[in-house]
Amino acid sequence: MNDAAAKTVMERCEFLSSISEDEEGICRPYGCESMREVNGVVSGWMHSAGMTTKYDAIGNLIGRYEGEGEETLILGSHLDTVRDAGKYDGILGVMVAIACVEKLVGGRLPFSIEVAAFADEEGLRFGTTYLGSSVYAGVFDDERLKLEDRDGVSLARAVRDFGGNPDAMVDGGIKADGLLGYCEVHIEQGPVLENRDLPVGVVTGIQSQSRVQASFTGVAGHAGTVPMEGRKDALCATAEFILEVERMAKDEPDAVATVGEMKALPGASNVISGEARVSLDLRHPDDEVRERLRDHLEARAADIAAARNCGHSWEVRQENIAVPMDERLTGLLVKAMESSGLPVCRIPSGAGHDAAQMAVLTAPAVLFVRCEDGISHNPAESVTEGDVAVAIDVIDRFIELVAEMRNPT
Ligand code: HGY
Ligand code: MN
Ligand code: MN
Predict the structure, then answer these.
(1) What is the number of alpha carbons within 13 Å of residue 138 lying toward its C-beta?
(2) Which of ligand 1's atoms lies nearest the C-alpha of 89?
(3) Which pLDDT value is given to residue 184?
(4) Residue from 124, 353, 371 to probe ligand 1 pocket by mutation (most atoms less than 8 Å from CB)
(5) Nearest atom, ligand 1, residue 351 CA
(6) Which domain covers residue 25, as residue numbers?
(7) Does the chain have fewer CB atoms within 10 Å around its N or its C terminus?
(8) Residues 283 and 188 in one domain
(9) Is the CB of 275 under 6 A from ligand 1?
(10) Among candidate residues 287, 320, 353, the one where a domain is terminated
(11) How many domains does the structure of the chain reveal?
C-alpha cells in the first residue's frame, strides 16, 4: 500500500489549505496572489518528483515527466477553489497525480506523463467554469476575454496581471496527437461511496449544466414613504424568481438548480432595491431537459418582471453538455481496482470536472474518492489517508495498464 505517499498527499493538501485570499477560510479565485503562491509551491513538488514545469497562456501549471516515445498520458485537476472551500476539491487530484509520478522517479515509461494543475475550474471570479482546462484543451472561446469580475476587471486584464498572455489562449493548448487520455482523481462530493462503504469509484459521466446571470430592475425608493401598492421592488421580484427556481427543480426528476449568489442594489436597509442580480446554476443529466428548464426559467423571469412593472436581464454565461467518460480508459481504471480486490462502483457525477472539458481533446476518465458525509464546497470537506492510499494504488496500477496497453507483450 502507499501509506507514505498518502501521508505526503494529506500533508500537502493541508499545507495548501493555509494559502488563501481570505483571513478565515480557503478562497483562491483565478489569478489571485494566493494562486500564484500555490503554483510556486506545487511546481517545487513537481520538480522533486522529477518533472519539468511550465505555465501556459492562462497560467495553468503543467508538470511533465519524460518517457520514451511520442505519446503522453495526462493526469491532473484544478488548484483554484470556491469561497470558504474545503481542502480537497481539485487539490487532491493534483497531489495524487504528483505522488504517482514521484513513485516513478528513475523509471522510464513507454510514454510521458503531464500533470495539469488547472488555474480555474470553479469559475468563482468570472462566473464561468473550466477556464483553465478550456485553454489547455485548445477550445477557449476568446469572447470570454471580455467577461468582467465584480470589480469590472476583464478576464484579459486578469490574465495579463497573472503573467499570462490573452492573445495565446485560443491556440495555446496541448497538441491532440499522441495523447493516451486524461485521468482525474477527485473527491466524490456526494454520498454514494460512503453509503456503500467503498473507498473509490469510477465516474460514468458528467451531467450538463447552464450558468446564467439574471437581474431585475425596479425603482429605488424610500422604505418609509413609498406605499406598498405600486412599488417596483427589484429584490421582491428576485425573491419570487428564486422560489420558482426551487419549485421547478423539485418538480423535475434529476434536475438540480441553485441560486448561489445575489446582490441587491443599492443595498441599504431603508432603501427599496432598484436592482438585484442573481446567479443561476442549472443541471440535468439530459441536455434537452436542461435546455427546456432553462427556457422555462427565462420565461418565468420575464413574467415575474412584467407583473411587477420591473425590467429584467438574462445572460447565459456558459453551458456544458453532458459528457460520458471514455469506456476504454475507464475500463483500465476498473481493471486497476479489480487487481486491488476492490468492488467496482460506477457513479454519474452531479459535479462538473475538468474531465468534461478535456473530453474534447482526449479520452477522459475520473476516479472518485469517498468524502465524509458527501460534504464539499464547505470547510468540513474531508477524506481519509487510507482512501487516498487506495486511490494512489489504483492510479499506480492504471499507469502500468496504460503501459501494457501501449506495449502488449
Ligand atoms: O460546480 C461544480 O460542479 C464544480 O465544483 N466546479
Ligand atoms: Mn468544486
Ligand atoms: Mn472540483
Answers:
(1) 11
(2) 5
(3) 98
(4) 353
(5) 3
(6) 3-206+323-406
(7) C
(8) no
(9) no
(10) 320
(11) 2
Instruction: Say whether pTM exceeds 0.85.
Output: yes
- By most ligand atoms within 8 Å of CB, the mutation choice from 189, 203, 206 for ligand 1 is 189
Of 292, 320, 348, the domain-final residue = 320
Q: How do residues 150-178 score in pLDDT, each as one tens digit?
A: 999 999 999 999 999 999 999 878 888 89
The answer to whether residues 148 and 107 belong to one domain is yes
C-beta of 121 in contact with ligand 1 (< 6 A): yes
| Atom of ligand 1 minimally distant from the CA of 350 | 3
The contacts found for 299-307 with CB under 8 angstroms, 24 or more apart, are 300/241, 300/244, 300/248, 301/214, 301/216, 301/241, 304/216, 304/237, 304/240, 304/241, 304/244, 305/216, 305/237
CA of 389 to the centre of ligand 1 (A): 24
- Do 313 and 355 belong to one domain? no
Mean pLDDT, rounded, for 100-128:
94
Whether 271 and 340 map to the same domain: the answer is no
Nearest residue to 380 (alpha-carbon basis) of 19, 26, 77: 26
Determine whether the shortest distance from the Cβ of 116 to ligand 1 is under 6 A. Answer: no
For the chain, the average pLDDT equals 96
Residues 377 and 252 in one domain: no
Q: Which residues surround ligand 3, an ion (CB under 5 A)?
A: 89-90
pLDDT tens per residue, range 321-346: 999 999 999 999 999 999 989 999 99
Q: Quick one: 9 and 71 in the same domain?
A: yes
- Are residues 185 and 289 both part of a single domain? no
CATH value at residue 45: 3.40.630.10
- Residues 305 and 298: their CA atoms lie apart, in Å, by 11
The angle that helices 91-102 and 3-16 make with each other, rounded to 10 degrees, is 140
Cell of residue 396, nine digits: 499506480
